[in-house]
Amino acid sequence: xSEATPGAAxxxxxxxxxxxxDQVRAEILTAAGNLLLAQGMAGFTIEKVAAEAGAxxxxxxxxxxxxxxxxxxxxxxxxxxxxxxxxxxxxxxxLTDQLTAFVRLMRDTPAGRVIxxxxxxxxxxxxxATAYRERYSGxxxxxxxxxxxxxxxxxxxxxxIDPESVVDQLWGACYHRLLLPDQPLTEDFARxxxxxxxxxxx
Amino acid sequence: xSEATPGAAxxxxxxxxxxxxDQVRAEILTAAGNLLLAQGMAGFTIEKVAAEAGAxxxxxxxxxxxxxxxxxxxxxxxxxxxxxxxxxxxxxxxLTDQLTAFVRLMRDTPAGRVIxxxxxxxxxxxxxATAYRERYSGxxxxxxxxxxxxxxxxxxxxxxIDPESVVDQLWGACYHRLLLPDQPLTEDFARxxxxxxxxxxx
Lengths: 202, 202
Fold this sequence. Notes:
2 domains; homodimer; mainly alpha; 67% helix
């Protein structure tokens, strides 16, 4: 359903009685994430999300300040499960699982193209840049820093490391190959990044 | 001089006799790099470069296949000296010098904004992406890989390292903070990146 079918909002795809707010919110987020992955920011409109989730535009505007904010929250919701941070107690296993899953998501699904275009647009759209930081990259960074901090507490990593810099050397290095594909983005590359950092180059 | 002054190409700023091709080429590259840094891709035209360098558009089209190719070659020419790769014989000193110079260039000059916008545009412009890779990121990667390979030959780094992955964990990590400024891009950050890799996190 699109803006070209004005009756859409009045006749939502799935008729339902009054749903709890949490459920409406969850359905909006899923609809937003799926729409973003299917059509990129170019095809992403509040109207389409509203129609798909059987919610009103007013409800969406009440909860999200902008189209970009809704898109990023939706993206986080939909890719979140694929990017879950395991906690097996072994930081090398956990980093390897997470980073190779991230590489597969970027390389083998529409998420790679979508996220590249979001980062590109954020360079000239300050509102989108803020939404990206507050609703996607900030929370994802926090999950990684948490995992690294747990590993420090368990004595698996040195106590004086700067976890934020490690995020840039693992996920940031992958984003670098995603955006500038001089060299391929592969699971082996992800494993090498971890090995370089854990063992050191000397 | 701009497209709005059609007489510009006929009355170049600096009148000169016939110059050797190498000199014309060098002056075109300098004019292109300076125009790109001053105005970004939005203000970058072959006409302006031709007028500034006192060359004809035909000459420029003979040597460069596209506006993007000229812009990237010009950028490489103008920022090259600031990004020279020293070879003191000590890889840690050399990496630190180069990476902190790169951070200063990105953070303190228009180069940071210009390169962000080039990377952004390359996401939806395949010709610009090719020009970026062939004329900027590829050659810069090669310089770094060369320096790392020299360090391996001198026994300063392990013989089994993958130099390409190290490029992504040093310069790529800086690009990550440039494009997604969740955390600040500083000289201390650059030093931490090197230290993480050289010593290892364990």
